[in-house]
Amino acid sequence: xxxxxxxxxxxxxxxxxxxxxxxxxxxxxxxxxxxxxxxxxxxxxxxxxxxxxxxxxxxxxxxxxxxxxxxxxxxxxxxxxxxxxxxxxxxxxxxxxxxxxxxxxxxxxxxxxxxxxxxxxxxxxxxxxxxxxxxxxxxxxxxxxxxxxxxxxxxxxxxxxxxxxxxxxxxxxxxxxxxxxxxxxxxxxxxxxxxxxxxxxxxxxxxxxxxxxxxxxxxxxxxx
Length: 224
Prior knowledge:
224 residues, Integrase catalytic domain-containing protein, RNaseH_sf, alpha/beta, Transpos_IS3, 7 helices
């Protein structure tokens, strides 16, 4: 109440607390819990802003835990978002695809070792269950270092799930001509779907005089 402009004396009298107790509380350093709340709010706000205000608690939780490796509970994220008035946009159900579109050829031949970075990237999509439903994570690994060079999280398997991961990898590593992206066939093999290839072309196809593989500029998408 005093923080809202009411006189301290009147506020303390109304709440039946002493003025000395109020000033002691006000001058007390923030607790570890308060500091963590402030830190978590900053992380949530950053992810929410990066999603252009679309991510809700489920995808923010997945982004923080699966993407950034932070240890935080879903309920805690919901509570912080509720107090801060942060909301995401409701998702829409999309029809399931049978993935009958053609895939690219195998340029790797099961040889997954490279002597230089950014010559072979390996992709993977995993499914994770949360209290609010499934989320999918796409990652791009460099074959030499085995480090994640790009990743993306979404509530459904869309072109954006794939192209966001590839876009991050390209932005982080700036690969040269001839880089190969390998993805396995399988239930979650949406890296092989032709519409993803078209979308990737919009990301990297603006670079001239680069090797083209399966309608893609800077990289060749392959499958096996």
